[in-house]
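Design job #97: recover the sequence.
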């Protein structure tokens, strides 16, 4: 049987053994996925950071049991949703426990349906899993191009070191490599719904 020697697998094994550099690399690869899930619950930036820190702590606790890198995106999505709902529930309980607090009047907390937008979340999860497989420079470029509002080419050049005239060609190569990642290829091959299967292409 052919052994999985993907860079993410190596990072997971090394981080589980206590290597801090490997752990930082894992965080860099999957932080966009984690933050995007938490932001879907309409938390403030400070609240998002608090929930994200909780999720990373949970990952540290379970890293030994997540040797399969394909499990990490799904695990992060599930745990981020659970911790976000838990946070919102605790905040709602705190407000209900102090109804006379004039500085924080009762506000209806709208918790998103966990099943709402499931297909979109799955596509986004696959996209971020594919991005995690790219070299850091290509990954950073595509993430910047996905930002809303998108930064100027001068800003992208400053942050990535890629000359303005090379941003387009580098982007094209990164997208092609993204389409060939196992995560994206598996998703496209297994998607029989006939819906939009071209999230990677939508970056163009």
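Job complete. Output follows.
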């Amino acid at each position: 049987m052919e052994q999985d020697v993907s860079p993410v697998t190596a990072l997971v094994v090394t981080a589980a053994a206590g290597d801090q550099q490997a752990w930082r690399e894992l965080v860099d690869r999957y932080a966009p996925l984690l933050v995007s899930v938490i932001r879907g619950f309409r938390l403030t930036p400070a609240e998002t950071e608090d929930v994200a820190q909780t999720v990373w702590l949970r990952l540290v606790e379970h890293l030994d049991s997540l040797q399969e890198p394909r499990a990490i995106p799904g695990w992060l999505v599930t745990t981020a949703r659970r911790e976000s709902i838990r946070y919102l529930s605790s905040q709602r309980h705190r407000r209900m426990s102090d109804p006379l607090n004039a500085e924080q009047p009762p506000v209806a907390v709208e918790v998103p349906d966990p099943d709402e937008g499931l297909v979109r979340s799955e596509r986004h999860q696959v996209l971020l899993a594919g991005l995690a497989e790219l070299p850091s420079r290509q990954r950073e470029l595509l993430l910047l191009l996905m930002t809303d509002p998108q930064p100027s080419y001068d800003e992208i050049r400053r942050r990535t070191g890629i000359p303005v005239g090379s941003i387009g060609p580098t982007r094209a190569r990164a997208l092609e490599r993204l389409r060939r990642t196992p995560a994206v290829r598996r998703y496209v091959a297994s998607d029989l719904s006939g819906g939009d299967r071209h999230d990677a292409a939508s970056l163009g």
